[in-house]
Specification:
237 residues; mainly alpha; two-stranded antiparallel ribbon; 2 strands; 68% helix; globular; disordered C terminus
Amino acid sequence: MTAAATSIDPPRRLFIPTVTKQCWGFMIGSAFFAVGSAPGLSEAMGSSLSNLLFFIGAWFFTGAGLIQLFLSGAVAVKVAYAPGRMVRAEWLAAATQSFGTILFNVSTTGALHARSINAQEKLVWNPDAGGSVAFLISGILAFVAYAHARKLWELGRRAWWSIFINLVGCIAFGASAVGAFILPSGDALNNGLANNGTFIGAICFFLASLIVLPFWGRSRRRPGNAVAGEDYEPVLQ
């Protein structure tokens, strides 16, 4: 660590956005979602406790999503064709995912209070479906951005696997939203699909963040190369 890095006092470092904090935010949030939807365990806990775990996990998702958006770089770049500037896919993916996390906040909060079928549809399922669609779009955009910056298939890089696993998780969350569709009777369309989709998606999001934790690459860095506030290798270079 350089002198510039050590001069930052701990209270200030707490509020510096880093990929480490982003990864841990998604991992902790995913862990809450995974426990709340785990097959067998979720039935034993009951819907009230599961909904509370989802509510807590969604806030970690939102915090991590905001950090990811902050670290995603410039909104647009100059291009040689009209209109002269283009929105970056990496930023758009982060912004879309961040919006999705906010919708999950709305959905998980509504699940704690919704009692009528109408409330469950408007306050729980609608924002949940919207968040799932936002996650799916962000996952596709991230894959497109990586393929544009590097290669479509790059199995030897952790960053590629992170983006791929994240996309699988986004698809699983989308399937979960389909299963959670509220029928006129008030029942979900398919409880098994809803729970399993959430569980698989949460595990995928956990792994997608775990494998790109900056911790894994620190042992390969040469001493003296650290920069204050920079603790990661960019996913898209």
